[in-house]
């Protein structure tokens, strides 16, 4: 099982909260048929299940903090194994959020061929998240938690981009632009991958 995943295309999708990762992933799924796995969505599904573990996760996420590495990585790995037979490639959205997460992923699962860096200004991300918060029902889309998520992004997640830049696999897209125009850049990044 794990061997099958090793041969699959793995794309990390990294960017600040509200930068537009989920939006672009949806478009990628529609055009390229890749499997979209969002660490945040997997965690929210666990919260929705009402399990004890879900309750612990909810408390952490509401504070804008990172849940334990092993929890997220196990969830992603299980979801990848479940799709290994049918997937043309995996979009790993919202992971890694710190360099250590990337290192552990590579030890346990495999190497990414691309890191898609979805870049937007912090003012833009705040504006989008507050707007999303009007309808998302997400307990972390409020002003106080947004500020914490942004701080943590700059502190813990930006170093992830530098880490993979040294490996030459980072493609940055300008997510200040309208969704369609961002997706033109995303498509170019994906089309440039070797088969
Ligand atoms: N390029 C864009 N221009 C304008 N609004 C955008 C753009 N990309 C995303 N949004 C909006 O910003 C919000 C956050 O996008 P989302 O894809 O959920 O971000 P993330 O998954 O990175 O948190 C959503 O409400 C989305 O509709
Ligand atoms: N890889 C990861 N490691 C630790 N915590 C994570 C995680 N991915 C998500 N979480 C937790 C903490 C985040 O603040 C919360 C929401 O994540 P998300 O849905 O990816 O946010 P967004 O798409 O707005 O960037 O879930
Ligand atoms: Mg998202």
From TrEMBL:
Residues 131-141 are annotated as: LID. GO terms for molecular function: AMP kinase activity; ATP binding; dAMP kinase activity; nucleoside diphosphate kinase activity. Gene3D superfamilies: P-loop containing nucleotide triphosphate hydrolases. Keywords: ATP-binding, Cytoplasm, Kinase, Nucleotide-binding, Transferase. It holds the Pfam family ADK. One of its GO terms (biological process) is AMP metabolic process. Monomer. The gene is AK1. InterPro entries: Adenylat/UMP-CMP_kin (IPR000850), Adenylat_kinase_CS (IPR033690), AK1 (IPR028582), AK1/5 (IPR006267), P-loop_NTPase (IPR027417). Its main location: cytoplasm. Its EC number is 2.7.4.3, 2.7.4.6. Residues 38-67 are annotated as: NMPbind. GO terms for cellular component: cytoplasm. Catalyzes the reversible transfer of the terminal phosphate group between ATP and AMP. Also displays broad nucleoside diphosphate kinase activity. Plays an important role in cellular energy homeostasis and in adenine nucleotide metabolism. Also catalyzes at a very low rate the synthesis of thiamine triphosphate (ThTP) from thiamine diphosphate (ThDP) and ADP. ATP binds at residues 18-23, 132, 177. This is Adenylate kinase isoenzyme 1. It catalyses: dADP + GTP = dATP + GDP; a ribonucleoside 5'-phosphate + ATP = a ribonucleoside 5'-diphosphate + ADP; dCDP + GTP = dCTP + GDP; thiamine diphosphate + ADP = thiamine triphosphate + AMP.
């Amino acid at each position: 099982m794990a061997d099958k995943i090793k041969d699959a295309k793995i794309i990390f999708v990294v960017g600040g909260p509200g930068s537009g990762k989920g939006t672009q992933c949806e478009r990628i799924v529609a055009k390229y048929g890749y499997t979209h796995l969002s660490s945040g969505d997997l965690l929210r599904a666990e919260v929705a299940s009402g399990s004890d573990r879900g309750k612990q996760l909810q408390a952490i996420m509401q504070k804008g903090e990172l849940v334990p590495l092993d929890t997220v990585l196990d969830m992603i790995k299980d979801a990848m194994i479940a799709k290994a037979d049918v997937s043309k490639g995996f979009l790993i959205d919202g992971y890694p959020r710190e360099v250590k997460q990337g290192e552990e992923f590579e030890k346990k699962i495999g190497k990414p061929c691309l890191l898609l860096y979805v870049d937007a200004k912090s003012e833009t991300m705040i504006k989008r998240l507050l707007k999303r918060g009007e309808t998302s029902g997400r307990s972390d889309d409020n002003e106080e938690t947004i500020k914490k998520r942004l701080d943590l992004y700059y502190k813990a997640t930006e170093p992830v981009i530098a880490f993979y830049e040294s490996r030459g696999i980072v493609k940055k897209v300008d997510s200040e632009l309208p969704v369609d125009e961002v997706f033109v850049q995303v498509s170019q990044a994906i089309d440039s991958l070797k088969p």
